[in-house]
Amino acid sequence: MPRGERSEEAWLWYTVVYEAIQEIPYGKVTSYGHIARLVGKPERPRQVGVCLKHLAAPSTDRTKKSATYNSSNVPWQRVINARGGIPPRGPHGASRHAAVLRAEGVEVSEGSMGELTVDLSKYGWFPEMLPSETGQVESSDGEDEEAAEDEAAYHA
DNA sequence: AATATGACCAAGA
DNA sequence: CTCTTGGCCATAT
User: Fold this and answer.
1) pLDDT tens digits for A126-148?
2) What b/e readout covers A58-73, taking b as 16+ CB neighbours within 10 angstroms?
3) Alpha-carbon gap, residue A149 to A38, rounded angstroms
4) Which domain holds residue A61?
5) Is A99 contained in some domain?
6) Residue A146: inside a domain, yes or no?
7) Integer distance in angstroms from CA A99 to C1' B8?
């Protein structure tokens, strides 16, 4: 991260996000919001996107830490938006993204406006949490980021 | 320092 | 179904 690598807190955010993403099974996809929930920050899906954006540049890493995670060891292609759409981050970005997903066996179709989409009910990966149905929340205690961090590193 | 943006999301209208 | 609104906060200008 550009800003002084001294900020452990910022590094921590990137770390938990990357590790959560690495848990997405091959051939499945999930959303930014789900990753945000996994790391205990359900209200910051946007910041997850920031992480991946920086991930796109593997070199230019001055700190050894930033070299830990790069576009080749983090399956960024398995993270799409909540509607199953592939975010058009560039002119040919979406198509390239779709190609990578198809290579994993994920079916990518075309939306109404030529937007590439994935069928979440088929390829979506949302581990045992459907708030809309059960309305149950796992950690209803006062735990926050710390707990989430543990949980994220747990599964690895 | 202050303002604008963005690989987003959920809920309303 | 589409469009708007409010919220988030690390980066970029």
Assistant:
1) 886 544 444 444 444 444 444 44
2) eeebeeeebeebbeee
3) 9
4) 8-124
5) yes
6) no
7) 22
Q: Residue A137 CA to C3 C1' — how many Å?
A: 31
A50 CB and strand C closer than 7 A:
yes
What is the CA A46 to C1' B4 distance in angstroms? 15
Q: Is the CB of A89 under 7 A from strand C?
A: no
A40 falls in which pLDDT band (50, 70, 90)? confident
Protein-contacted bases of chain C (C-beta within 7 A): 1-2, 7-12
- Residue A130 resides in a domain: no
| Position A112 confidence tier, pLDDT thresholds 50, 70, 90 | confident
Nucleotide nearest to A111 (CA to C1'): C1
Residues A70-94 pLDDT 10s: 888 899 999 999 999 999 887 788 8
CA distances from A21 to A77, A113, A114 (A): 10, 28, 27
Residue A89 lies in a domain: yes
CATH number at residue A53: 1.10.10.10
